[in-house]
Each structure stands twice: as C-alpha cells, then as structure tokens.
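Cross-posted from the bioinformatics board.
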Amino acid sequence: MRVTLTRPPGIRRDVALRPPAVAMAFLGEGVPHEAVAVPGVALGEHEVLVAVELSTVCGSDVHTVQGRRPAAVPLVLGHESVGRIVAVGDGGVLDAEGAPLGIGDRVVWSVTASCGSCDRCTAGLTQKCRSVMKYGHERIGVHGELNGGFASHVQLRPGTTIVPVPEQLPAAIAAPASCATATAWAAVARARAIRPLEGTRVRVHGAGLVGLTAAAIAAEHGAVVDVRDPDARRTAVAEEFGATGFDDAPDVVIEASGRAVSVALDEAEVGGTVVLVGSVFPAPAVPFDAEGIVRRLVTVAGVHNYTGADVSAAVGFLTGAGRAYPFATAVGAVHPLSELDRAIAAAAAPGAALRIGVAMR
Ligand SMILES: [Zn+2]
Ligand SMILES: [Zn+2]
C-alpha cells in the first residue's frame, strides 16, 4: 500500500490511503457489518496510523453483536489487535517506555486512550479517565472511522499506551495482549498488591482466555492454581496453562467467568482475597453474604480493563515466561475481514476456540 503524506494548514496531516482503508461498521443487532471505505485520515499531533496485521474477536464483541451490551452505532468493533505503524503525526509518538516509535514498528496498544491529567488519571486509574476513549467502543464520526480493530487500519490517539512487539512473536499471541492478557495481568496484580502469591492457592473461575492467562501468570508467581469451568474440555486445557488443581478453600479467587461470583465470595479461605473480573455485563445482581465476608476477613476487589503499565507487563509476559504456555493455540481460525460476520458467528458457536482471528486479505 502507498501512503502519501502532505501538510495541510493546522496541526493535522492529511494521510491519503490508496487503496482506501476499510473499516467494518456494526450497525445493530441482526444487521450484517458494512464495509466502509476510508480514503484518508487527518492525523493529529502525536497520533499514529497502524495497519492491522491481525485482530481477534473478544467475548465482548460477541455480546455487542448479539445485542446483550448497549452500543452507539455505527461502530467499528475490535480491541485486540497487532499491527504495524504506517504514518506518524507531527511531534512524533513514544512507546510505553518513552522511546520514539517510527514507521514499520510492530505494536499493540491499550484499549483506552486517557488524558493523563484528570483526577482519575493522576490517581493511576487511567482506564477510568474522565475523558476516556475506548477503541472498538466509540461511535464513528468525521475523521473518526478508524477507531476499532475490525478494520485494515486503526488511528491511535494521544494517551494510548503503545507497546512494541518482537517480529518473532506470533500475531495470534500478540493480538489478545490488549484485552485478555492485560486484563488477566491486572487481575493477578490486584491480588498481588494485597498478598504475595508465592505458595498460595489460587482458584480461577472461567477457562476462557482471561482465566487461562491469569492461571499461567499466577503459576509464574509461585501459586498453586486450580481452574474451574462448566466446560470440561476447557478445564482440561487449563493443565497446559499452569493449573495443577486442588480441592481446599482457596487463598485467592479470581472470578473471570461472570457466573461464579457467589461461589467465589463464599469459598475464599479466612483472610482470603477475591478479585472479580467477570466481563459479561450487564449481569444479574448476586446475593452478598456480608457477615461471611466480615467474619472470614475477606478482601473483595473489582478489576475493569487495565492501565498502560498492565499492557506493557502483559507483552513482557507473552514474550518471556509466557512462551512456556500454548497461547499460540488460542486462535482457532483466521477469517478475512470481509467475512467478519462469519468470524463473529464462529466465535459465538458452542465449543468455539478461545479466539477467532480476523485479518485483511
Ligand atoms: Zn475484550
Ligand atoms: Zn484522564
């Protein structure tokens, strides 16, 4: 693809794309995605344009398409992607470590772009920034079509954490870093902030990609790990992600299924920690045994999305200790971008692979 840079008045650069970029617009439940051609973007200061190599379908994409999660349409879904920088805005852009990024760099990026200066950002809660923007979650607008992963290109805004990934890391491992892996890292980090994991019993509910990744990360931190899931095939896979199993009460429970919140709250050992990550929302309220939580001195923590530091650490894990686990097998099939509806249907099917990939062909 040829990319032409010209400098219009103002701080934005017109980036013409020949052939045009393609974004798959979600228009509502039951309506096929529609391909939108984007002949160019206005690239602001400190923005970059990334050509997507591979995106993976997350459970929340499936929920949105099924109408189980509200969304302002039209919208380009997809927030697990790996790609290559093809244009850089004025002023340049830095990676998560503060090093300059350039054309050709292979990267993943955070699901959120945050301002860095509001009260929540300065408190370290960048995923809850007062003016947060989330890739794959925003209604498209003028000069704002390329903000989701189910597209040939994504325009990365200032305040996005961008992490380089090595060429040798398979795209199937790299793409989920910006949701599943970073969320799993954030969940385990939340537990570790409360207690060291070395020698503790960690139970993970949910053997989806978040749960299996959390199992592997907890095992790397010295925990004995047990993974529970109603799907016996997925539970069996957990052995390959560091789970050895146990039947005692867990010291730490990571609830990553959205279905075992009551069990998680009830089973934690005295002095235990329960981290709730469950991502299937809106979810029905569950009964809360306050007396049991009090008497057992249980700490309950919620985790939603993650910070820039978490996605950096997630990539560090995938390129380091994580290579010992079969993350490359998570992606069952890769569909052409033009067949996104088929890809999402495959991801929603019973017994589906942990992830289905989508790539421009
Ligand atoms: Zn996700
Ligand atoms: Zn902010």
